[in-house]
Amino acid sequence: MTLKVYTSLLLLFLVNSVWTRTVRQVYDELDPEHWSHYTFECPRECFCPPSFPNALYCDNKGLKEIPAIPARIWYLYLQNNLIETVSEKPFVNATHLRWINLNKNKITNSGIESGVLSKLKRLLYLFLEDNELEEVPAPLPVGLEQLRLARNKISRIPDGVFSNLENLTMLDLHQNSLLDSALQSDTFQGLNNLMQLNIAKNSLKKMPLSIPANTLQLFLDNNSIEVIPENYFSAIPKVTFLRLNYNKLSDEGIPSNGFNVSSILDLQLSHNQLTKIPPINAHLEHLHLDHNRIKSVNGTQICPVSIAVAEDYSFYSNLPRLRYLRLDGNEIQPPIPLDIMICFRLLQAVVI
Description:
Elements (H helix, E strand, L loop, with lengths): L1 H15 L38 E3 L17 E3 L21 E3 L23 E3 L18 E3 L21 E3 L23 E3 L18 E3 L21 E3 L22 E3 L17 E3 L10 H4 L4 H5 L12 E3 L11 H6 L5 E3 L1
Parallel strand pairs: 1-2, 2-3, 3-4, 4-5, 5-6, 6-7, 7-8, 8-9, 9-10, 10-11, 11-12, 12-13
């Protein structure tokens, strides 16, 4: 089980390590549609690097519209412009696009021509951060692997917009205007391979409904969430990284075993209203509880195994895995209680 989790995390890390100007070479030299079969035309507003002939750099050019995209292009960079519309005409020949970066423009939903995105059949990565979108654009290309829509004005998610996106591994909706009513029980239906879901910095008061079962990373920071429903995480049994910093969680809002979940390795509950440490699982490795209202720490009470077992070195394989514990910004006074060190023998850092 542990090997499978770490294998999945490694895959997610590799997916997320692809940044705007560091792109992977995915074309096959034997592919009959290889870029060398096309002419090397280049829009005068853009830059076409000879060393990377299937990329087109049109970023930071003050463009108000998208130029005609040559047929050989796979990677298209249009960020930091003044583009307001996305129409079909510039993409007529661009049938091989894998990557489009339209971050930091002035694109609205009405400015996106109906069906233009879904016609980009080979598109894998779509970046529309820092625009003027008020809802998730639809329809979307069915082959998408990453959809980044952070820092827009999105308050609505159309019905069924994600239903055919089985390949999507990352969905970033952070810093928008989503209310609880925008996330229905079927909103994320169809996202069977989603690994990271970011809904931080919205206006949620409740935990979102029906998170895809394969989600590994769930980011809900900077909302107004007060309660964790009973058995909430049983529906997402693979969740490994959970961030709930800057919410309104109190002791009463967390069930007795709310975070006692074997899959969670990194739990972040900073800047909430907790007065005690909630029960945790022995598999947890990183726990962030800084800037709450915790006054004292009792190692015997929070230890996920009995102190007697923790003291017995013959039970090393059953020892709690906690390596990092952050408690600063509370009302706790040093020194660290001895029973904390006895229980969590693998601790490498305690911030108090």
